[in-house]
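Record minuted for everyone:
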Amino acid sequence: MAITRPEELVSPGGAFPGYAVPSRHVPKQLVRERQVASSLALQMALYYNAFYSALHAFIAILGIRYKMMAIGPGALGYYLMPLLFSVWAVVEIGRLLLGYAGNLRERVQHLAAFFFLTIFPQLFLVAASCVLQTPRWPLDSIAGGIQLAFLLFELVVGYFTVRRVIGIQTTRFRLDYQPAIPIVRPRRSTLHL
């Protein structure tokens, strides 16, 4: 479907509803004629990370429950492990939602928040939970390593996605709001005696 441009661009409504007001902005292109800025690689990583995060949370809850019974209430890990897991779980839900919505809707604000939540606190929390647990099991290291791999992959792909979305939205803004007739400014002439 091609977009036809009328002779005089008008926008209905405005200050006086019912009257056509001349507009100098070119009508926006249809959605299917625009370049898509979202990243398929980031979307796939977020999709699989959502399922793996649920599995990781289940493994972590069982491990923390068993470790708390084994080490007793006197140790530092007795209080630290549930606290780190709680912060990780709450932030992970928000981080995945921000990344999912920001990528699909091409929102720079959501993608930037997703990017920063991936760096801090998630990257540090997962690394700390892999290293700082007192009775360390191989399953903890494996599950944390997979989660770290997801985070690092999403960090790299998310960075390039944010840059691409910003570039495409800047181009769209310039095309949508560029004056229809270029303004020609007269040159200053200097008189030489």
